[in-house]
Amino acid sequence: MRKIFNLIFSILLLASCTEKVTLSREDLADKIKGGWAGQTFGCTYGGPTEFRYRGEMIPDDYVAPWDEDNRIEWYFDNNPGLYDDVYMDLSFLDVIDRKGMDAPAEDFAEAFARASYPLWHANQAARYNILNGIKPPMSGYWKNNPHADDIDFQIEADFAGLVAPAMPKVAESLCDKVGHIMNCGDGYYGGLFVARMYSLAFMYDDAETVVREALKVIPRESGFYRCIADVIDWHCQCEDWKETWRRVEDKWNDEIGCPDGVKSPFNIDAKINSAYVVMGLLYGGGDMERTMEISMRCGQDSDCNPATAAGILGTMTGYRAIPEKWTAPLEAVAGRAFAHTEISFNDACCMSERIALQNIRDNGGKVTEDFVRIPVRHSKVVPFEKSFDRFTRVEKDSGGCGSFTDSLTLNFEGRGVVLTGWLDCTPDKLPEGFARLSVSVDGGTPEVFVLPCSFATRRYDLYWNYNLPEGAHKITLSLLDRADGVSVKCTSKVIYN
Hints:
With 497 residues, the protein is an alpha+beta fold. The chain folds into two domains: 18-375, ADP-ribosylation/Crystallin J1 (ADP-ribosylglycohydrolase fold); 394-496, Jelly Rolls (Sandwich), CATH 2.60.120. The chain has helices at residues 2-16, 25-46, 71-78, 84-99, 105-113, 121-131, 158-162, 168-182, 185-200, 207-215, 223-237, 241-252, 270-283, 288-297, 304-317, 324-331, 345-362; strands at 20-24, 366-367, 371-375, 394-397, 403-404, 407-414, 416-425, 434-441, 447-452, 463-465, 471-482, 486-496. Strand 2 (366-367) and strand 3 (371-375) form a beta hairpin. The protein is globular. The N and C termini lie far apart (56 Å).
C-alpha cells in the first residue's frame, strides 16, 4: 500500500512541476562535499575571533594567518568544541539516516537533548525544557525560551539544505520540525533562510540569486525579512561592504530577546548574524577567502557566520573548485569523527548523499547511475511568527540581585521579566548538586522547579515571565531544598514593557 501511495504521489508531483534541475551524480556528490567542507574550514577560519568583537568591526590586520598544514587538525586535537555547529548538524543528520525523513520532531529533540555535548542559549534552554517535559514546538516557543530569536537553529540548519538539493520545500519541512525545537519567530526564520540557501545553491551559481530566492518564503512583516532586505538594498547602493555594515549596526544592532544581549554590545540574534552571512556572500564576489573574511570581520558570532557563508558558497561551486589552501588541512582529518559523535567529515558526505538521493526519488525525481533529475516546486510564504510580541521597551537592572541560600525578593515595574543567573556549586558537588527553587510573583501560586549544577542539564536563566499585567511587581525566590555548598546567584533583572 505504501509503495502504491508513493507512486501516486510521485506522479502528481511530476505533473505539477515544469522546471527541473539535472545534475550528474558526480556533481551532486561534489556539491554536498563542498557544503560540508565550507562549513568546517569556515568555522576554523573564524575560530580565533569568536565573539571577541561585539558591535565593532574586526580590524584589517587581525585576520589570523591560515596554516595550510595543520590548522584544522590543531582544533580537532586542542579545541574540538569549536565545531559545535557541525556536530549539532550531525545529530540531526544521524536521526534521518537511522529513522528516515518521516522521523517526528520528538526524535530529533531527544537526540540533541540527551547528547553529551555542551549547549548554550536557545539550545540549552530547549534541552532543559525537553528534559523537564516541555516538548517541541513548545520547547522553542518564546514564552518558554527567552532565547527564541537567538542564532542557534541558524548555525545548525545546513544539513536540511544539503539533503534536499534543489528541493527547498523538502528542506522547509525538516526546518519546521527541527527548528521549532529550540527557536521560533526570527530565530526560526534564520535557520529556514540558511537551509533554503543551501538547497538553492544546487540550482544557481550566483550568490545574489540564492539570497533573494531564499528570502521569498520569509514573511515580509517579520524583523528578519526587513533586516535581510535592507542588506540586499544597501549592497546595491554601497560599493564598500563597510558602509553596509555601519548601516546594519545603526538600524538593527538592538537586542531585545536574549537576556545576555539586552543593553550590551553582545548580539547573538539570528537576523543580524544572518545579515553578516549575506554581506559575505554578496560582497565576496564568489571568492572563498573574500566571502569568509567579510562575514568574519563583521564581528559577533564570527566563526559560525563565515562557516555558513563558506558552506553555501562551497555548495554552489562544488568541492573541486575550492582552492587547495582551504581543503588540504581538511583532508588531514576527513576520516576522524567530530567531537561527541561517531561521524567524520567523510561519513557526513556519504550520509547526506544517500539521504539526498532518496529524497529525490521520494519527491518525483529520477536517479540513474549517471545523473539525477529533480523536479522543482515553488514555495509559499511560511506562517508569520513573532517572538516577544508587543514588547517595545526593555531594560536591564542588576540592583538588588546577588547570591542567596535562603530567599531573595526583587521589585520592578513592567509586564515581563527575566532573571539571569546560575547555580553556584562547589567542585565536589558536580554534577549531582541541585537546588529546588520556588518563585512567586505578587504573592500568587508559586512555580517550583529544580536547578541542576550539571553544566549539561542546567537551566540557562533562573526565571522568566512574559504574561504579567503592566505595573509594579514583587518576585520572591525561595530555596526549598539544596545540596550542601550550593547557592543561587541572581545577576540581573531584564524588564519588559
